Amino acid sequence: MRRFSLATDVFFAILISAFITTILTGIVAHESLVNVVHAALSVVPSVSRGTEELLLARAEREIVQRFDTISYVMVSFAGFAAIVAAFTVAFRLSRPVRELEAAVEDFTRGNRDRRAVVAGPREIASLSSSFNNMADALEEEDHLRRTLVADLGHELRNPITVAMAQTEAMLDGVLPADTMHLRTLLTDMQYLGRLMDDLQELALAEAGRWRYRMRSVDLSALVESNARRAAQRVPPGVEVRVVGTEQPVMVYGDELRLDQVLRNILGNAKKHTTAGSITLSLAVAPEVITVKVADTGEGISPDNLPHIFERFFRADTARTSDTGSAGLGLSIVRGVIRDHDGDVFAESELGRGTVIGFTLPRERRAASQ
Q1: CATH 3.10.20.320 fits 215-361, yes or no
Q2: Could you tell me which of 223, 228, 293 has the C-alpha nearest to residue 258?
Q3: Which CATH number fits domain 123-206: 1.10.287.130, 2.130.10.130, 1.10.3720.10, 3.40.720.10?
Q4: What pTM was estimated for this model as a whole?
Q5: Region 178-204: what's the mean pLDDT?
Q6: Do 255 and 264 meet the contact criterion of CB atoms below 8 Å apart?
């Protein structure tokens, strides 16, 4: 099926509309003039019957002919004006569309830097802007995908290489297959297991396939229980404090997932705090509930702070699997909180500590998933 361009469609649409309107206006005006002239001349005093009819006919014919001549001129002028207007409008509409089409073709051919010019009418400019936003998002996703593959390879390579080297050494008799070396192998395998679990969790979250058992949850009790558990595992000299949990604070959410969020944030705080305190605080506002975990650890640099919720990100790039973390915990936190219609945030100052927290709606009525 042959399709015309937008410029051609707009050009002929305006031109045909202008011609039809002009012709119909001329016909109506012609008939109206004939009626008006006929009515006006019918009241002229008669000289004689034959003379009156002759005068009326001539006058009516001459007036109508002059009007028709003027109408033809006006139709021609209107047609010319319609052609100019139609061409101008069609060109103005089609040019940004052609530019957007060229940008889309270049982008699909691999030119990821190509963006459309935001110009033209509001709708077309909005479409171009939307394309640019989509291109930016796709470019960012492509960057994250490449980074994910590289980081995943790095995270898997270290423990696997160490485990293979130890196993070969034990097979060759260089290392004894005693409890100490076997425990080292077990630690590496446990790290790989946790990494696989975290990757699966993150993949489910990004695919929107997490299943939640939503119900009323006492967030205050959840904070208290995590604080007690964390207090048993912090380094000596680190105090765990709780603020704002005197009264029950009810939210609508998945208790296990919210518990996972608190465990991940606290785990991050424990790894980076060797002295001082870790404080869990709960604050209730008219519309939102805010949970914060503040530590007195090493802090995060301003350059790294915006990226801590990204996959595999670690502020200390030298840190390896010895920490037992692949940098996925806070990514999972962000996914869970966003699925609960909340938001995450982080504040930090080098040498003074970090605050990581989240907000949840105070009242949330949603169907269980």
Answers
A1: no
A2: 223
A3: 1.10.287.130
A4: 0.54
A5: 76
A6: no
